[in-house]
Design goal:
Elements (H helix, E strand, L loop, with lengths): L15 H6 L16 E8 L6 E7 L3 E8 L8 E7 L7 E6 L7 E10 L2 E5 L3 E6 L8 E6 L15 H8 L4 E4 L13 E3 L5 E3 L14 H11 L3 H9 L2 E3 L27 H15 L14 E4 L4 E5 L26 H13 L4 E5 L9 E3 L4 E3 L13 H14 L5 E5 L5 E6 L12 E5 L19 E7 L17 E7 L6 E7 L4 E7 L6
Parallel strand pairs: 9-10, 10-13, 15-16, 16-19, 19-21
Antiparallel strand pairs: 1-2, 2-5, 3-4, 3-6, 6-7, 6-8, 9-23, 11-12, 14-15, 17-18, 20-21, 20-22, 23-24, 24-25
């Protein structure tokens, strides 16, 4: 796999070329306070063979100029039309780079000119990514979820798991959801067992309370991008985002009732979800879908060996409840009818060897809506260990379809439960048996409290192949400093087409490894 330089691109880039082609005068380098600045680094994402999304944010209304090059020294770059930032989008800007060459290192450079003083120009900022291959080659990507949760923020070490992932130079990073914790206020210090303290060295006002306003939701994102490890990974590796509940509020659905939660002055879950969704799309590199602006579910084709199908198990679900319906109705669904039709169609049309189904919640683990009383389904499983009911009906229908349509080599990846595990779904052990065996891998948190393990629901016959979670003696909500922060690495061999999955911790220890052989249709 091609190793790319990790040094700071900014020091070697020049702003003059960008400004020259924009029609502006050459910049004068005034005092830093008079010049615009990029406040939260850069990001790339949703990269395929010929395109990718890039993002940045400025500190004031600015004209952002772009160059794209296949070389780090920006010899003969492609200069794009500038884009303006404004308060309407909190000074963020993102664009889709198109007509790229497959399997190519892409370097992108941005410079910002102050709209109020067009000759005041920022220092340049530079990032890179690699486009997907058009032919078979080795592929490596990482996944995890759950960032800045349970009050654990940026300490002296910072969000170390991001830096550990970066050392593996993945082609992309798949963030499985709970990208922020909008409902998780932070304090300056947290008392730890034994008399020590966790100190949030970096803290902003937006993280001291639950998010309710649009600006407060935006602040949750900006906080994460104040961490050096997050910024470092963003600069060299595309992130493919999906979301779950904590982007809005814990366990949200249409039945979420905040009337007794004194932390919230805004009690309407639909208002909160709308503000959260806008912030999510402003602050990430997720692609814009004209047919449904704000859509999260999508497919990314990554060459002949891999396609990734991102699910949205939050936006179209029925209200959380017992999930014991005998028939499939809008209330018993978790994906929704339109998303399910899309998923079936895209899986059936896929010619990729491996089909990764990126789910924001696990299939066979019980996640209670009311954890204290162990009541109500928050994820798929309803906890009765019986035939498919409620949300399980929709998943049973999908698994049956995958089998009957002859769709092979599906692997499910998820996070959500704040520990790491490998599950093998065996129809011989299941109550619902009309499906082919498959694997599900769980890995997280990235930087949040460690919990678990969760109980299994045996409707789909999950077998536990590996687990790393807190012991009874360790308890729950362990801080990141306890070391139980996890991510997964996936390697696809370009020659053999085998997929190797490794479960890792933040100190880069390999905890579990399995190699899967592809099934080739006759």
């Amino acid at each position: 796999m091609n190793k790319i330089s990790r040094r700071a691109f900014v020091t070697s880039a020049s702003a003059a070329g960008l400004v020259g082609v924009s029609g502006l005068a050459l910049p004068y380098y005034s005092r830093a306070s008079q010049r615009p600045a990029f406040t939260h680094g850069i990001q790339s994402g949703d990269v395929d063979a010929t395109s990718g999304v890039v993002w940045t944010r400025t500190d004031r209304p600015s004209r952002v100029m772009f160059e794209v090059s296949s070389t780090e020294n920006f010899a003969n770059p492609l200069r794009l039309a500038p884009l303006d930032t404004s308060p309407a989008s909190d000074y963020t800007v993102k664009r889709l780079l198109t007509d790229l060459t497959s399997d190519q290192d892409i370097f992108y450079r941005m410079v910002a000119a102050d709209l109020a003083d067009i000759n005041a120009v920022s220092e340049p900022i530079v990032g890179r990514f690699r486009t997907a291959p058009a032919s078979k080659r080795d592929i490596r990507f990482a996944w995890s979820g759950d960032t800045a949760g349970q009050g654990w923020g940026i300490d002296d070490t910072g969000m170390k798991t991001y830096a550990t992932i970066g050392k593996h130079t993945p082609d992309f990073f798949l963030h499985s959801g709970d990208t922020i914790y909008a409902d998780g206020p932070m304090k300056d210090e947290v008392e730890l067992p034994g008399g020590s303290k966790w100190k949030n060295k970096v803290l902003i006002d937006e993280k001291r309370k639950v998010a309710e306003t649009l600006d407060e939701y935006r602040g949750q994102w900006k906080y994460n991008m104040m961490d050096k490890n997050v910024l470092g990974l963003n600069a060299i590796c595309p992130t493919f985002y999906q979301w779950d509940d904590h982007e809005v509020v814990n366990n949200w659905s249409d039945s979420k009732d905040l009337s007794a939660d004194d932390r919230y002055s805004e009690k309407n879950i639909h208002v909160l979800a709308a503000r959260a969704a806008r912030a999510f799309h402003e602050m990430t590199t997720i692609r814009y879908e004209p047919s449904e602006p704000g859509r999260v579910y999508r497919k990314i084709s990554y060459g002949p060996l891999l396609e990734v199908f991102f699910l949205d198990m939050r936006s179209y679900r029925g209200a959380n409840g017992p999930s014991m319906q005998d028939t499939m109705t809008p209330q018993s669904r978790i994906l929704g009818e339109q998303q399910m039709k899309w998923l079936k169609r895209e899986l059936a049309n896929s010619n990729a060897t491996w089909k990764i189904i990126a789910a924001d919640m696990p299939l066979g683990l019980i996640v209670w809506n009311d954890a204290t009383n162990k009541a109500g389904a928050e994820a798929v499983s309803n906890g009765d260990n019986g035939p498919a009911k409620g949300r399980e009906l929709e998943i049973a229908d999908l698994l049956r379809y995958i089998k009957n349509a002859g769709i092979t080599n599906t692997v499910w990846l998820t996070a959500d439960v704040h520990y790491t595990a490998a599950h093998y779904y065996n129809p011989d052990k299941a109550q619902f048996q009309d499906f082919n065996p498959f694997w599900e891998f769980v890995s997280g948190p990235l930087h949040a409290g460690t919990y678990g393990p969760n109980d299994f629901d045996m409707t789909f016959g999950p077998e536990l192949k590996f687990i790393k979670a807190p012991t009874a003696e360790q308890g729950q909500n362990l801080p990141p400093s306890a070391g139980l922060q996890f991510f997964g690495l996936v390697d696809i061999d370009g020659a053999t087409e085998q997929m190797t999955v490794r479960l890792m911790d933040r100190d880069d220890n390999e905890l579990y490894k399995v190699t899967l052989d592809p099934v080739h249709s006759a």
